Known about the structure:
Blueprint: H1 8-15, E1 22-27, H2 34-45, E2 49-51, H3 52-61, H4 65-75, H5 82-93, E3 101-105, H6 111-121, E4 126-133, H7 136-144, E5 146-149, E6 155-157, E7 176-177, H8 184-198, H9 200-206, E8 212-216, H10 221-240
Parallel strand pairs: 1-3, 1-4, 2-3, 4-8
Antiparallel strand pairs: 5-6, 5-7
Helix pairs in contact: 3-4, 5-6, 7-8
The structure holds adenosine-5'-diphosphate (ADP) (2 copies) and zinc ion.
Amino acid sequence: MGSILLGASELRALTRSPEKPMVLILLGPPGAGKGTHATPLSLSLDLPHISTGDLFRAQIQSNSSLGQKAKFYIDQGSLVPDDLVLDMLFDRLKAQDCAQGCILDGFPRTLAQAKALDLRLENKSQILALNFHVPDSILIDRIAGRLVCRDCKKSYHKLFDPPATADLCGECGGRLYTRDDDQASIVSKRLEVYREETMPLIDYYAAQNDVLKEVDGQGAKEQVFQDVLNALPSFAKAISSQ
Ligand code: ADP
Ligand code: ADP
Ligand code: ZN
């Protein structure tokens, strides 16, 4: 496959339709690299990056009643019930910065969530789903070494993407920490939950015309990001031909 190098403004023009805001869904198992690629994609496409995991962790940090409820499920590696997720996400989607579309990271994770999103968007947005394929053995190594910035939420890796200064974020100087749910015993449960509840979404989106693109997420970060960019213009063509 030839490599397509596009500048940010070209990408924006290719992927943005004034009639149909783009809702770009990053699908894939825990540790696949969704958050890692969401940040540069958000800059390139000028769309907000919305991670339901980050939204829940912010609620937990502020000790809100939603945070307390969500923590119970997150700590055991289960999914937070759909109604709590949907209320929180749909509230976020009301914000003005989502008017041109958004990048969803970690949502939807169940068929019920995907169907609720379809209803909510009422066919007025173009859903595009990028599915990151990464084998379990790699996921386990990635999650075992993941470090996250407390402030800007950027992910690092102890071995694959270490910060220049130990324990500090190179972007914002925030402290890096290991997520409680990234410990091995919980990760195996999360992978099982992914297989049972989230994997069916691949077939759900594959059954719709021009919605799903597969990305091989195994390679180096830069290679995977290039594959992501290469996938986007073909989506853009699909949007403009509708
Ligand atoms: P997700 O959001 O899908 O759960 P992350 O983006 O947080 O995954 O990535 C999980 C971990 O793997 C992080 O520590 C990140 O630095 C690392 N990582 C992401 N992509 C790659 C890659 N292509 N090669 C090696 N490590 C990666
Ligand atoms: P990862 O990408 O590593 O799986 P996330 O940060 O996306 O991690 O999610 C962390 C946890 O937050 C999940 O294990 C789950 O408990 C909860 N969560 C996040 N998004 C959703 C969602 N869409 N539906 C249900 N639970 C969610
Ligand atoms: Zn930071």
